[in-house]
């Protein structure tokens, strides 16, 4: 290894990244490299792959001097390890054999965001009216730092004013008792722990409501419904080990480099042992092209990058059903050829024994003409055949996907098509194979597992009835879209948010903000100020909570919480940092406080005991879900987490037919609308500098977009044919045929490598353009990845 200091310095100089002295050396030290000396003005310019120096610079740029303090480094070193705390960013798994620093650029940003020394105090609220704060940008709101006191909205003065916890609980309880329980929404963004989530769902049901939508209603609900329909499991079938055994990975619409960067490590390992990766994405995402592992000194110093994708297919937004149909068509054609020679490409035994509906699907695939596939996918027949050939030749294949497949009008068909492809060769339920949706929030999957669901059939209501001696509500609750409809038509009167930034994350934002204010009660449990806290019902409270990195001391001592990752492993997490304010309560204590104040006494329900010792809540979770959570308290610190199992992985298919189901898609287009002149398919993207509605900064370094988020990305060809110039400011308007005027102004035109007919821009800025009715047909997940728009100059 060429690790002499000169090389490192030269490399830094060559790349021109600004790294104040000590910071890079500190990092290199922590990675076990020789100490490196640098002068103050060593500069490195990021270019090329994801990871690498750019990720270090990304952290430095945002957090400056805050980030390499010993206490911060100590906290980061505990991230995602047994006995440490689980990252507050994404849900990617935390492996048993972790790295020295098992965190990525964006995980570090999320942690540092929570550890900030800035405070958003009652004085701040005294200096600004809520109406004034409504004009601030998301970035500026969260920049105020951590919320410190429970606050009540005072309508007369238009200010938030501090209140006591007792006052807040009593006032909210009085409101709730006066409302019809079915008119109250209990929303959860996917961060709160399994313990809090269990208590929150129990509170809602004891109160009389199944209105428990969570953020997965806006992302992987398509999976929960669509995947369950075809393989009988609502979550992915892969375990970590599968990534070291597969021969090919087919990757659809998931941006690993920004949204689950630690996943790049097993991907890089897979590539190095010869696994082929085929990517379908309209955008050429850096992380899926090449990667320098920031944990690897050799790669960092030499700039040696690993090419990730063997093939990168820039499918049209909404073109995946067609692309997958093309792949399947080629597999069938190759099977015909093989059969003529007495061989088989398909796994016929598997198909016969384990699947349903093959003949109908085969017929549909054979009858779908290549011309339609090419037109709808925007890909050539040759490119699709080449990709399909990798599938044909691979013994073990994994299918991975994210929002590119789920946030579509025919999103469930997308997932059905990916399953069709995998089933053709028995690529589910064998080592090294499977389907792996990459989940979003760090505990979004787990919240569903322990009862946060608007669908009563997914919850063991009889068990809850027996345990707590009550009659749980049996009527279906509202999901996110239905909650929005209810807020608009007045049937929803109150909204409680356990984290999140609902008003900013949902579609149809302009109309929703107006309707929102007509609600009687809005309550937000949060760590930082965001726009949803400023659009208030008649009575409004803002309740500040501890973050996951912070010490949570209760009657029995410091508490542990647990979460479930994308691969269904459960991990314990302990926060050790000093809380941001002495007035904060834990999320569980807030939920328990609200519940206790609202509900009549119940001899089987002991909110105070549970708050005093979260281990007792884990016992209740175990009692409610014994198959998945047996010996919960004992197993929660298992390195790598404990696996809660998946029937489809065992080839037990809990579907209607009792088999894994081939399905014929309802349409070849996932977008769900026809093309016409002047209509574009808008993709709403996350930048590398954001976590959902939390904006860390204005650099999207992996896409080369800098300084602003108000952009319209469009291909040079489309730019020319629309008569646009680079840098020109334009507006986007909705092109949905529903007569509603939706518009976003002030977007700067930037040429960008995108397929014909597609444009892109950032979420949440462009959310006013998404009609509420524009969602996956089966699950009602908003279809944010192909939105019909027109450009106005
Ligand atoms: N740093 C960071 N990490 C995050 C988040 C964050 O905001 N920031 N958010 C978290 C959450 S809640 C979630 S749900 C996940 C989201 O993570 P992802 O699933 O990666 O979601 P997106 O970034 O919205 O979009 C994914 C990709 O879909 C592509 N795409 C768009 N349309 C199509 C299409 O029609 N077909 C195909 N094949 N691809 C398409 C886009 O180009 C993009 O690369 O990440 C989680 N992790
Ligand atoms: N156009 C478009 N819209 C989308 C998407 C898209 O791709 N395109 N993606 C959708 C997806 S996948 C999702 S998941 C949703 C996200 O929707 P949400 O989950 O509702 O939104 P977030 O931005 O994650 O919420 C951020 C806020 O959470 C609070 N918070 C942070 N940490 C904690 C904590 O530990 N506890 C508590 N109580 N609060 C905390 C802070 O106040 C912060 O401001 O947006 C959806 N909307
Ligand atoms: Mo999400």
Automatic annotation (TrEMBL):
Its cofactor is Mo-bis(molybdopterin guanine dinucleotide); [4Fe-4S] cluster. It comes from Rhizobium paknamense. Residues 146-523 form the Molybdopterin oxidoreductase domain. This is Molybdopterin-dependent oxidoreductase alpha subunit. The keyword Iron applies. Belongs to the prokaryotic molybdopterin-containing oxidoreductase family. NCBIfam families: Fdhalpha-like. Keywords: 4Fe-4S, Iron, Iron-sulfur, Metal-binding, Molybdenum, Oxidoreductase.
């Amino acid at each position: 290894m060429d690790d002499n200091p000169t090389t490192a310095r030269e490399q830094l100089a060559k790349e021109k990244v600004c790294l104040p002295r000590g910071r890079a050396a500190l990092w290199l030290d922590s990675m076990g490299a020789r100490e490196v000396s640098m002068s103050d003005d060593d500069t490195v310019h990021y270019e090329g792959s994801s990871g690498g120096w750019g990720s270090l610079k990304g952290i430095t740029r945002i957090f400056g001097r805050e980030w390499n303090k010993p206490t911060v480094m100590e906290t980061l070193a505990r991230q995602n390890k047994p006995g440490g705390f689980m990252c507050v960013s994404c849900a990617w798994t935390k492996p048993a054999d972790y790295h020295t620093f098992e965190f990525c650029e964006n995980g570090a940003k999320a942690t540092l965001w929570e550890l900030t020394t800035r405070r958003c105090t009652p004085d701040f609220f005294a200096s600004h009216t809520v109406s004034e704060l409504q004009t601030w940008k998301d970035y500026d709101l969260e920049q105020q730092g951590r919320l410190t006191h429970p606050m009540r909205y005072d309508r007369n003065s238009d200010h938030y004013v501090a209140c006591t916890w007792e006052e807040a609980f009593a006032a909210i309880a009085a409101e709730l008792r006066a409302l019809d329980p079915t008119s109250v929404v209990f929303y959860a963004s996917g961060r709160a722990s399994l313990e809090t989530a269990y208590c929150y769902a129990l509170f809602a049901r004891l109160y009389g409501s199944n209105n428990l939508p969570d953020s997965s209603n806006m992302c992987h609900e398509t999976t929960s419904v669509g995947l369950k329909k075809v393989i009988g499991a609502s979550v992915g079938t892969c375990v970590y080990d599968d990534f070291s055994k597969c021969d090919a990975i087919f990757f659809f619409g998931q941006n690993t480099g920004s949204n689950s960067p630690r996943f790049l490590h097993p991907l890089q390992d897979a590539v190095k042992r010869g696994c082929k990766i085929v990517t379908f994405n309209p955008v050429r995402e850096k992380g899926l092209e090449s990667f320098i592992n920031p944990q690897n000194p050799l790669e960092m110093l030499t700039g040696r990058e690993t090419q990730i994708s063997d093939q990168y297919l820039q499918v049209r937004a909404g073109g995946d059903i067609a692309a997958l149909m093309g792949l399947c068509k080629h597999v069938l054609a190759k099977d015909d050829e093989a059969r003529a020679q007495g061989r088989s490409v398909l796994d016929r035994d598997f198909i016969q024994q384990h699947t349903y509906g093959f003949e109908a699907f085969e017929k549909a695939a054979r009858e779908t003409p290549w011309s339609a596939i090419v037109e709808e996918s925007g890909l050539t027949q040759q490119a699709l055949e080449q990709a399909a050939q990798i599938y044909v030749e691979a013994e073990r294949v994994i299918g991975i996907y994210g929002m590119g497949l789920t946030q579509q009008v025919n999103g469930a068909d997308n997932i059905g098509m990916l399953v069709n492809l995998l089933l053709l060769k028995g690529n589910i339920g064998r080592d090294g194979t499977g389907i792996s949706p990459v989940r979003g929030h760090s505990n979004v999957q787990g919240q569903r597992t322990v009862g946060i669901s608007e669908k009563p059939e997914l919850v063991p209501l009889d068990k809850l009835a027996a345990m707590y001696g009550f009659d749980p509500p049996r009527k279906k609750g509202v999901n996110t879209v239905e909650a929005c409809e209810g807020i608009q038509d007045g049937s929803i009167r109150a909204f409680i948010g356990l984290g999140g930034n609902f008003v900013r994350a949902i579609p149809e934002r302009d109309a929703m903000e107006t309707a929102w204010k007509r609600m009687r009660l809005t309550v937000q449990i949060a760590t930082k100020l965001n726009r949803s806290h400023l659009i208030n019902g008649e009575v409004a409270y803002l309740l500040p909570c501890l973050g996951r990195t912070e010490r949570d001391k209760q009657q029995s001592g410091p508490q542990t919480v647990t979460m479930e990752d994308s691969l269904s492993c459960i991990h314990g997490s302990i926060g050790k940092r000093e809380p941001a304010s002495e007035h904060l309560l834990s999320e569980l204590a807030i939920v328990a406080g609200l519940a206790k104040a609202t509900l009549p006494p119940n001899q089987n329900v002991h909110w105070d005991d549970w708050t005093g010792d979260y281990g007792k809540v884990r016992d209740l979770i175990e009692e409610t879900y014994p198959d998945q959570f047996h010996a919960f308290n004992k197993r929660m610190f298992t390195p790598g987490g404990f696996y809660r199992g998946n029937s489809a992985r065992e080839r037990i298919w809990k579907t209607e037919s009792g088999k894994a189901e081939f399905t014929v898609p309802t349409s070849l287009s996932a977008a769900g609308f026809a093309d016409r002149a002047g209509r574009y398919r808008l993709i709403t993207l996350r930048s590398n500098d954001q976590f959902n509605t939390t904006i860390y900064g204005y650099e999207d370094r992996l896409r080369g977009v800098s300084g602003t988020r108000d952009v319209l990305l469009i291909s040079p060809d489309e730019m020319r044919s629309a008569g646009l110039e680079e840098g020109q400011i334009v507006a986007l308007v909705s092109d949905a045929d529903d007569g509603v005027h939706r518009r976003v102004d002030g977007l700067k035109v930037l040429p960008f490598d995108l397929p014909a007919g597609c444009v892109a821009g950032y979420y949440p800025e462009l959310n006013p353009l998404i009609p509420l009715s524009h969602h996956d047909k089966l699950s009602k997940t908003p279809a944010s990845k192909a939105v019909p728009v027109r450009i106005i100059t």
